[in-house]
Task: inverse folding
């Protein structure tokens, strides 16, 4: 069993932090200058999120808190959780400087219910690029159920596992990585980051897992959640396959050639209880 993935991945994410804070992708300065500014990711989600005013929400794997603050600006009282102490500190600074109704906690996501409180939340939100850092999706489903109060809702938009299985080789898309969760992680090694800026980093290795759609849905069903939406999208909010994707506006990217052949992301919603 892999036991060092958190230390390896935390070092990599901590190295990315200065680049992310300064990037146009996260637009930290716009939150400070524009009281109604929200992230492209949350703006994309709004038609499905509906009215979140007055809801108590938990944002798991929140990174530097831009989506968390965005949800707070839509009226939710938010708590963000991330495994990186440096990211949590940056998120707390952003919330303080923008007077957002958002607090932040450093923790392993698998311990979220113990740290944040079981049955305390109307909404659990998880954004794009989160689940691939977790080795066990069934355990994640149990955490979601533990966090939600009866009638509470999970909202997740995530990279599609077919997209994560895909590699670009000699200009052609090939399915090379595992689609289903495996015991051993995929190993990545890159000095770049999805925000589009290159920066020298000491920690370039990551360990990540894919999870099939059936495995994700089953993890929630087994935790007694009821699926209320599953929608696949033909765009993703980062250039996941550089060189064959184009920006289509609102922070979204899509395959230039026949994008309908590849599910890029999906939205999933589930409710605790009948």
Result:
């Amino acid at each position: 069993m892999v036991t060092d993935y958190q230390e390896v991945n935390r070092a990599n994410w901590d190295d990315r932090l200065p680049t992310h804070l300064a990037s146009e992708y996260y637009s930290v300065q716009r939150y400070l200058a524009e009281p109604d500014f929200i992230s492209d990711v949350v703006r994309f989600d709004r038609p499905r999120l509906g009215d979140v005013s007055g809801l108590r929400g938990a944002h798991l794997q929140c990174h530097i808190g831009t989506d968390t603050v965005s949800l707070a600006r839509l009226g939710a009282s938010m708590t963000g959780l991330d495994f990186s102490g440096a990211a949590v500190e940056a998120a707390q600074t952003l919330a303080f400087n923008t007077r957002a109704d958002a607090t932040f906690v450093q923790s392993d996501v698998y311990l979220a219910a113990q740290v944040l409180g079981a049955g305390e939340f109307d909404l659990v939100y998880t954004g794009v690029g989160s689940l691939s850092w977790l080795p066990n999706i069934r355990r994640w489903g149990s955490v979601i159920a533990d966090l939600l109060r009866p009638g509470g809702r999970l909202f997740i938009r995530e990279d599609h596992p077919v997209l994560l299985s895909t590699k670009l080789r000699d200009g052609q898309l090939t399915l090379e990585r595992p689609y289903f969760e495996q015991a051993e992680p995929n190993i990545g090694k890159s000095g770049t980051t999805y925000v589009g800026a290159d920066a020298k980093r000491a920690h370039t290795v990551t360990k990540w897992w894919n999870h099939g759609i059936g495995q994700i849905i089953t993890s929630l069903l087994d935790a007694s959640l009821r699926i209320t939406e599953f929608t696949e999208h033909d765009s993703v909010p980062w250039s996941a396959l550089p060189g064959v994707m184009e920006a289509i506006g609102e922070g979204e990217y899509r395959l230039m050639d026949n994008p309908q052949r590849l599910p890029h992301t999906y939205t999933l919603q589930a409710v605790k209880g009948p």
About this structure: The chain has one domain: 5-272.
